[in-house]
Structures are given as structure tokens and as C-alpha cells.
Automatic annotation (TrEMBL):
Pfam families: FemAB_like
Protein name per UniProt: GNAT family N-acetyltransferase
Alphabetical list of SUPFAM superfamilies matching this protein: Acyl-CoA N-acyltransferases (Nat)
InterPro entries for this protein: Acyl_CoA_acyltransferase (IPR016181), FemAB-like (IPR007434)
Length: 409
């Protein structure tokens, strides 16, 4: 393991580590627990999750995700007071906040864009705290430490992706550039009554006739094919389930011409380390043979999670509308039955609107080393935010509800 690099300020010692295990898991997770959004952001920023990405070989220097975790330690008592999962990257894959055009512009002008710095959860388009800190002063110091490390490493840029409101307050104080993008989220809230849906039929009744009919037709196609679903949560998900899920995930990625980001070792590791965070839906054909699976993450706030996150799916057999059933209808029905308030469908996918996942703005912050490019990107982001607002308004016009609700900000 590489030795951490250190620097000192009046209040904090800054250490940059290149192996997640150089930071005690209990200290990292204690900071996460203290964050304003820490109880409803899923398992993704937990030390166990990030360490599993590293230990399985999915997010390492060899895959273009070199860990440079920036940590701040109190000079007074030696405690960990702030930390961020910074990765030095040689590409822009697996981020879901797209900057390929920025990289191309740098290249056209003979300016190097890679390596760059990214504060993010690899391969995970789920918003949540990224700048962990015990208080606002430590979080502000963490932003300064991140920028200092980016400059010292000669990075072209620093990107804090899909963070929290507390993150943005600290980033904005250091003049990072603000960016908005759109995801699609379902909320367990009746559009006219304002309370939670009572059940699946209550949810369907809130939709327009054509959307309700379409969902019923899609679900009927799966049922008529003899497909049934088995739902397992936490420790009930077996090693065989994880192995089958990983097989489905790999095959579906490859059918789309892409190498999978994650491997079976990662899935097994998070299944063991964070069992209560996972919900698995396994589809079986009429003979009882498993043919597909989808994986949902849950926020860790008890028997009734505040949020669920649709993450991965795959299939080894083709059935019409199976993707919609496994990835949307089964999870939404589970959320309704268990009082879950929000289901996030991940990045992209306008088809999700017809399934009542509405456009929702998520945020990122950016710093570019080259002054001219920083100015140009800043101007671009002003225009992009206006375009995003128009895009979201246009999407809202296609709301599936009989009386369209206001999409959350």
C-alpha cells in the first residue's frame, strides 16, 4: 500500500490515501451518519461499499479510478473530521455526469484533460453526501484541501458529482461552477390528495387512462408468458442468488456491446458486508427456472426505508416487457407495500416518465484549472441550466398522472 501524503494547517492535518483501508471504516461511517442526508442516501458512500469496489478490482488505478481519498484529521485530538472519495481518472466512463465535450474541447486546443479529479461513487448515479465532515468549517476546509491536491497533482479539473445541499454550500464558497442534470424519480405521493398511495390499484387509478392501460398490458404480457417473481431481502439473498444475478448482469452488458463495470466479487462482497441494503427480484419461467434478476438498494433507516434505488438488472432469456416488470413494476409494488417514500430510477431514460418516474434535478460542482476553459465552461453552464429548465418543463407536459403534480426540485 502506498504511504499517505500529508500536509498541515492550523486546525487539521490533511492526508491523501491510496487504499480505502488506510481510513478506519468506523471513522468514515461515523462521518456519513452525521450528514444531513446521511439516513436516506443508500449504502453507496459507506466504507464497505467503496472498499468493495476497490478490493474487487472494479475501481482501481488499473481501471482508471485511482483512489486519492482526501482526509482531514483534527490536530487537537487526532480524530477524522472530514473525508472525500477523490479518484484521479484517465477517462470519463462510469460517472453519469457527462463531460466528454469538455474533454474534446481541451484536446482540440492542445490542452490535456486527463488525468482529472472526480469526487464520486464509481458507477453509481445516486445523489448523496460526497464531502463528509463533522461540521461546516471542516467541510469548507475539505474543499480547500481537494483543490490544493488537484493543483499539486497537475489535474486539469475537479468534479464533485451528485452531492448534497451541504456539499454545495461549501463548494459554492470556493467558487466551483454549478451544474444541473436530470434524473427520474418516483414519489409515493398521490398527485391530488398529497398523501401516500394506499396500494397498487390506488397508484394506477391516479394515472391517465392510456398510461394505466399500457402498464396493465405490459404486466399481462409477462404474466401470460408464465413468468413469476421471487423477492428476497438482506440475508435471505443466497450466494447462489448473487452468482445468478452477476451472470445476468454480465450477459446483458455484453449484449449491448459494453464490458460490465462490476464483477461477481463486488456483488458478493457488498452482499456480505451490507446485507440489509439489498432487495433482489428474481424472475422464473413457467418451469421454475430463473431467467432474470434486478437489484434494488435501500436506504438504511429501518424496516420502512425512506428511499429505494433501482441499480442493476440482467436477463438470460427474452420475454416481452420483462425489463419493465423487473426494474419498475415489481420494485414500485414493493415500495407501495412497504411504505417507501421514493424510488430513484437512475440516470437518463425518458421512457421512465410513462411509469410515473418524474424528471428531478440533481446537482454537481466543477473546477477547471485552465482559466480560459473555466470561463468558457462557466458560460456554457449558464445556458445549460436554462436549457435543462426548459427540458424539464417539456417532460412535465408528458406526466402520466390524470392531474399532473409538480415535479420535485
Amino acid at each position: 500500500m502506498d504511504a499517505p501524503t500529508s500536509s498541515e494547517s492550523a486546525d487539521y492535518v490533511t492526508r491523501v490515501v491510496h487504499d480505502p483501508h488506510a481510513v478506519p471504516a468506523h471513522a468514515w461511517n461515523a462521518l456519513l451518519h452525521d450528514q444531513p442526508e446521511g439516513q436516506a442516501c443508500g449504502p453507496f458512500m459507506r466504507h464497505e461499499y467503496l472498499a468493495a469496489l476497490h478490493d474487487s478490482g472494479c475501481a482501481t488505478a488499473a481501471t482508471g479510478w485511482a483512489p486519492h481519498w482526501v482526509t482531514l484529521w483534527s490536530r487537537a485530538d487526532g480524530a477524522l473530521v472530514a473525508a472525500a472519495p477523490l479518484y484521479v481518472k484517465t477517462h470519463s466512463y462510469g460517472e453519469y455526469v457527462f463531460d466528454w465535450a469538455w474533454a474534446e474541447a481541451h484536446h482540440r486546443h492542445g490542452v490535456r484533460y486527463y488525468p482529472k479529479g472526480v469526487v464520486a461513487v464509481p458507477f453509481t448515479p445516486v445523489a448523496g453526501p460526497r464531502l463528509l465532515a463533522r461540521d461546516a468549517a471542516a467541510r469548507a476546509a475539505l474543499v480547500r484541501a481537494l483543490l490544493a491536491h488537484a493543483r499539486a497533482q497537475g489535474l486539469s479539473s475537479l468534479h464533485v458529482l451528485l452531492g448534497s445541499a451541504a456539499d454545495w454550500a461549501a463548494a459554492d464558497a470556493s467558487d466551483l461552477l454549478a451544474r444541473e442534470t436530470v434524473q427520474f424519480h418516483w414519489h409515493n405521493r398521490h398527485p391530488t390528495r398529497g398523501d401516500a398511495f394506499t396500494d397498487w390499484e390506488d397508484f394506477l387509478a391516479s394515472l391517465s387512462h392510456d398510461k394505466r392501460k399500457k402498464i396493465r398490458q405490459e404486466r399481462r404480457k409477462v404474466a401470460d408468458a408464465g413468468v413469476t417473481f421471487e423477492v428476497r431481502r438482506g440475508a435471505d439473498i443466497t450466494a447462489e442468488d448473487w452468482a445468478f444475478f452477476a451472470r445476468c448482469y454480465r450477459q446483458t452488458y455484453r449484449e449491448h456491446g459494453n464490458p460490465p463495470y462490476l464483477n461477481e466479487a463486488f456483488f458478493r462482497a457488498v452482499g456480505v458486508a451490507l446485507p440489509d441494503a439489498w432487495l433482489m427480484f428474481t424472475a422464473r419461467d413457467a418451469a421454475g427456472t430463473p431467467i432474470a434478476a434486478s437489484l434494488v438498494a435501500l436506504s438504511d433507516d429501518g424496516a420502512s426505508p425512506a428511499a429505494a434505488y433501482g441499480r442493476y438488472w440482467g436477463a438470460v432469456a427474452r420475454v416481452d416487457c420483462l425489463h419493465f416488470e423487473a426494474c419498475y413494476y415489481q420494485p414500485l409494488a414493493w415500495c407501495l407495500a412497504h411504505g417507501v417514500g421514493r424510488f430513484e430510477g437512475g440516470a437518463q431514460g425518458e421512457h421512465k416518465i410513462a411509469r410515473a418516474l418524474l424528471p428531478t434535478v440533481v446537482h454537481s460542482r466543477h473546477w477547471l484549472a485552465h482559466p480560459a476553459f473555466a470561463d468558457a465552461v462557466g458560460d456554457y453552464l449558464v445556458r445549460e441550466r436554462a436549457a435543462t429548465a426548459h427540458y424539464r418543463a417539456a417532460l412535465q407536459a408528458h406526466s402520466p398522472f390524470r392531474q399532473a403534480p409538480c415535479a420535485p426540485a
